[in-house]
Write a structure and sequence with these properties.
Layout lengths: L1 H13 L16 E14 L6 E9 L4 H7 L13 E11 L3 E2 L2 E15 H5 L7 H12 L4 E3 L2 E13 L22 E15 L14
Parallel strand pairs: 1-3
Antiparallel strand pairs: 1-2, 3-5, 4-5, 5-8, 6-7, 7-8
Length: 213
């Protein structure tokens, strides 16, 4: 459910109209994902029997084993060769009420965005966090809307975190990665509270087909 919600918000960002002849979406982002989880990669160390565990954001749309083997666990890690990265994190869902056949939910999610101003603006670059935050909020905080089986979706921004290493505290990035929060790099997080409903009359019957799955 929370993964589906994040995908809906990601799709809205990817559909931003930038004018005739221009690509749609957030043009300053190379890698955009819906909801992520904390992936772990275990590697042997020089100490016999001891292993180091690296934690990183991995898209819930990815197959974990294939991701590890193909190296896509690096996709959402700040990298000076990328213009920008964006993904969502789960901070819990509550169930406030049920009314007239609708199950109502409130999900707390965080949008995390990292950008490389040098690749976006060139050498004469300056902070644009405020512009990007405004563009994202303008796209997502649009009042009530429906998407698929989720209805009355209402996105509200509640908090902003800028250039703070706590944005990456779930992961085991090396200490020198602090440079990715300093010029010409920037990062920010936007905490959202998202209300939405799911009708018990519109939910399709669950059919289990283990072979095709």
């Amino acid at each position: 459910m929370i993964s589906q919600l994040a995908t809906i918000l990601k799709d809205k960002l990817n559909a931003i109209d930038n004018g005739v002849g221009n690509p749609s979406g957030l043009t300053f982002i190379d890698k955009i994902s819906g909801m992520v989880s904390v992936g772990e990669k275990v590697q042997p160390t020089d100490i016999p029997g001891a292993f180091a565990v690296t934690k990183f954001p991995i898209s819930l749309d990815s197959d974990y084993e294939q991701c590890i083997s193909s190296g896509c666990y690096k996709d959402l890690v700040p990298n000076s060769n990328l213009k920008g990265i964006l993904y969502f994190e789960d901070f819990g869902t509550s169930m406030p009420s049920r009314d007239r056949g609708n199950f109502n939910y409130i999900s707390k999610i965080r949008l995390v965005c990292w950008i490389n101003n040098k690749l976006i603006q060139g050498n004469d670059c300056k902070s644009i966090n405020h512009l990007l935050i405004t563009q994202i909020r303008k796209t997502l905080e649009v009042g009530y809307f429906n998407s698929g089986q989720l209805t009355r979706i209402n996105v509200k921004g509640t908090n902003i975190i800028e250039n703070d290493y706590r944005l990456f505290e779930r992961y085991t990035y090396p200490k020198e990665s602090i440079k990715f929060l300093m010029h010409p790099y920037e990062a920010f997080g936007i905490d959202f509270s998202v209300e939405y409903s799911i009708s018990d009359n519109c939910t399709p019957e669950l059919i289990i087909n283990a072979v095709s799955c």
